[in-house]
């Protein structure tokens, strides 16, 4: 969808959007329009339950005295509800409410709001960003869509004072949206299309934005001793890969200043469970078991797109977990790149095996300031937190707090769970240094304890995103399907703390 910004004022035809505060107090532009229509807006408000609350809207169709097709009045709520996040959601709701209404553009009048710090331009940029995020669709495989099933709306125009500055702010937000869309595409693609090699090639496309991209194949990973990752992929005919992405937007020196931050993603392009095979019902969901890797790749796109002033490394471990004549067996013992040995008691606990080598490799090669990994790691996190928080596990309170705050700011919420020696003991093995599953309880925590054994003393956080990577319901800025959870969150983490301005 195209987005443009223009000076205050509204077109005389088509669909226009104006606003009202809590108590249905019309904005300046809305008042003008109300007069022009002989009070049609106030009458419509009186005849409905519209009170100008946030989330409310009212449509006045073809008002007399104008050539307009529709006036949509949206509620802003109280002054303290006019926030960055709420304006994004408003943009999403405007998109959803008008996308079938008209071919071409919808005009949105954004007026300054009394007692609100954000300027009209700031509000306009956030509305535009929210509308853009909501406009995502994955319909490339639908060959028989009728025009009426597709959105007619092709662009929005935001009218406000300070529109040039709004346009500039939006340029940056649009780059983040591009990263989000890239992740949503990767996560939505089926596993016959996206597998380790093709996912690596998608990551390689970031080179045109200035990201350095290296792809390691099985021979290289074998030389590096990545027995944990390779064991997971050995039952698949698809070659396992590891992709290393580097964005150098920060200091170029070799000292502490230039030390990068690192993001690591689980990229199981399909998880059958392997020999410990999953039940068939719902197994199709396991196409998005690469959601962590997808988020890291989209994050790198967002950061490079907006030329973030930070040094960032993204590493993704890409494998397909299949049963087969060469598949890993329960009871196999593998040696990880760190030298630690692992007894694989359940081949369906594969994500941690992939991350064990990806985390060790990243730590060893880059000595990063911190590592954050993202993984659709456990079904148990869905039992604990459902789909409204991702699980956060960390060995570092400051990193945890920064992540949690960034998550609140972009509404990708995190909830911290404990790590503890007592849980760590649960993965000690009789035959090897550790086993890849714990006992009956605390499944998400024992998975996190497992990862912790591969990060040394580096500040580290693990985000278990199994419950939030895919959504079954539309939210204002996240249509159902792949959410790209983590892209906006980690972009914000970098912007808040790791960019020199
Ligand atoms: N990819 C799954 C976790 C998952 C489950 C993600 C449901 C999204 C939705 C992971 O590889 C897995 O299979 N975990 C097992 C671990 C168990 C064998 C210890 C699980 O959660 O059942
Ligand atoms: Mn699994
Ligand atoms: Zn998995």
- Give the count of structural domains: 2
What global shape is seen?
A: elongated
Number of strands: 20
The hetero compounds bound to this protein are: ligand BES, manganese (II) ion, zinc ion
Strand content: 15-25%
**Low-pLDDT segments:** none
The appropriate CATH architecture of the largest domain is 3-Layer(aba) Sandwich
Notable features of this structure?
2 domains, 501 residues, 15 helices, binds zinc ion, seven-stranded mixed β-sheet, Aminopeptidase, binds ligand BES, Leucine Aminopeptidase, subunit E, domain 1, binds manganese (II) ion, 34% helix
Q: What would you say this structure looks like, in words?
A:
The protein is an alpha/beta fold and 501 residues long. The protein has two domains: 173 residues, Leucine Aminopeptidase, subunit E, domain 1, CATH 3.40.220.10; 304 residues, 3-Layer(aba) Sandwich (Aminopeptidase). Helices cover 34% and strands 22% of the residues. The chain contains 15 helices and 20 strands. The mean pLDDT is 97.
